[in-house]
Amino acid sequence: MRKLIIALAIAAMTSISVNATILPVEIKNSITKDFPKANFRFDGVIILPDGTIYLPLIPSKFDAQGEFKIKSSYPAGKKLSQKPDVVIFSNDYVLMKVIVDSKGNKSLAKLSDVPVEVRTGLLPQDMLVPANLSIPQNLKSIIGNLEIPTSKDSIVTTPIVQPKTVSDNTINSLAKIPELKNKILYVSTSFSKNIQVVNPEKKIPEYALQQNYIPIMIKGYDDMFLLVTSYGKKAVDIISLADDKVIRQVELKSQPDEIIMDYKNKIAYISSPSDSSIYVLSLETMTLKRQIKLNGMCEKIILSDDGKKIFYNDKQTNTIWAVELDNEYLLKEIGKFPNVSKIAYVNGKVYITSRTKSRLAIVDYATLGLMSENSVSEKPVDMLVYGNNLFILGASENTIEVVDTERDKLTDTIVLPTDGFSTRINKIDGTNLALISDAKAGKYIILNLDTKTVIASNPIATPVSSIVVANKIKKIGK
Questions:
Q1: Which pLDDT does position 147 carry in this prediction?
Q2: Number of H helices and number of E strands within the chain?
Q3: Which of 117, 140, 338, 438 gives a 20 to 30 Å CA spacing to 71?
Q4: 103: Cβ–Cβ under 8 A, 6 or more apart, which residues?
Q5: Share of the chain above pLDDT 70, in %
Q6: Domain residues of the chain, as ranges?
């Protein structure tokens, strides 16, 4: 097996029409001192743990002289911990609280004598302003070119009609999986444009997020955002889960495809096979940072657990490549393999499954030597690394085979309770559980990765292509 190392030219950062709003670190520190779990959204919106929203006003002239402190507030004399309606800092930045009345109407404070810092401040111009926000006439100058969305044009949800075939909507097996309590599932299918929003305790989705294109892949971040790539669209949609709305579209040169997440370094890697590229997206600012040029049309991309390598298959030549992210983005050819369905990397070894050959190849990364090649269950479609175990999902027989990667020996075979077509196995963050989606049967399956047993098979009123599990969060203005 030959080895080839090729230096990659890193393309100039792709230009986009929006920038993230970065608040001064002093203001962030001041807020997190009283509200450690405050969320600073990339468009400037500040969301406190109880759902209170503050909108920042950027001063026309930044004043960084002297000691940083709160200069004034409204009502007067209020501390930040008391959540006043207006906070003016010594650097002339202003925080305006979104006031929500008992009927859900949203407004900013009515000030009879508007401070100069407020009159001359400006809302971030890439901000997603809460829908139907009422701004007093004497504060209209802070809007700039922003448009205030109405309920009609801001809502991207659609109700779900209960199928007549579903009589009992409750799932009793939830008691077996307490890790799904207070969670919400975002489900995409291969035949619908809409993303279903599912309460794990129910068979029928509560509502759906309307989309104009059929999703290719959905990924969640920080329980606040959903990243979506779609067929026929040269952009990545960023959906704010607090708004149920597309908050930003990150434009690319060509259609994006797969997404892999590096949560530790707050980066998303987005493949574009037709452009022979992987784009690097900052999850903190939701802006593109780099375009990595590759050999061939990339698919089946994965990220090593240490975040230092990306592996992909060139669909034109069936060649597996590694991108060494910590080594000036050098390429390393792993070898050619037929009909690659999934790649995994653990303990210095590359694991490659062939969908049509139903084989598992194991390659030593350092020497590129083929260590072994073994038969696996028919139509292996996905793999998951958990500790030293490799879970291989076979779609034809709906089984999961477990391989001990220290000895490279098959230790367990798990039969899934479905006659559908299993598609993906995804670990639920922060747990020892994995969720198996089924593109044919209306169900999803929960697997305990430690005991290697199925603990629940939950019906759902739609076939599942992919699922994102997130914590329930308070919706803005509700």
A1: 75
A2: 3, 40
A3: 140
A4: none
A5: 91
A6: 25-149
Cis status, amide bond into 75, omega within 30 of 0: yes
In the chain, what are the helix, strand and coil shares in percent, each to the nearest 5? 10, 45, 50
The 3 state secondary structure assigned to 224-271 is CEEEEEECCCCEEEEEECCCCEEEEEEECCCCCCCEEEECCCCEEEEE
For the segment 288-301, the average pLDDT, to the nearest whole number, is 96
Tell me how far apart the alpha carbons of residues 144 and 44 are, in angstroms, rounded to a whole number: 15
pLDDT of residue 165: 52
Could you give the 3-state DSSP secondary structure of residue 391? strand
Give the position of tokens 């009992």. 168
Q: Indicate the helix (H) or strand (E) that contains 29.
A: helix 25-34
Sheet order of strands, 453-459 included: 422-427, 433-438, 443-448, 453-459
Q: Which residues of 46-67 are buried (b: 16+ CB within 10 A; e: fewer)?
A: bbbeeebbbbbbbbeeeeeeee
First to last CA, the chain: 60
Token pair in block for residue 77: 């004399």
Confidence of residue 15 (pLDDT cuts 50, 70, 90): very low
Count CB-CB contacts under 10 A for residue 43.
Answer: 22
Predicted TM-score of the model (pTM): 0.86
For residue 219, the tally of other CB atoms under 10 A from its CB is 21
245: its two tokens: 């709305």
* Apex 81 CA angle, 80 and 83, nearest 5: 65
Q: Is 2 exposed, middle or buried (0-12, 13-18, 19+ CB in 10 A)?
A: exposed
Cα–Cα distance measured from residue 174 to residue 187, given in angstroms and rounded to the nearest whole number: 18
Q: Is the pLDDT reported for residue 268 higher than 90?
A: yes
Which pLDDT belongs to residue 221? 95
CB proximity list for 337: less than 8 A, separation 6 or greater: 313, 318, 320, 352, 354, 361
State which H helix or E strand residue 380 sits in: strand 380-386
Residue 234's identity, in one-letter code, is K
The phi, psi pair for 248, rounded to 5°, reads -160, 150
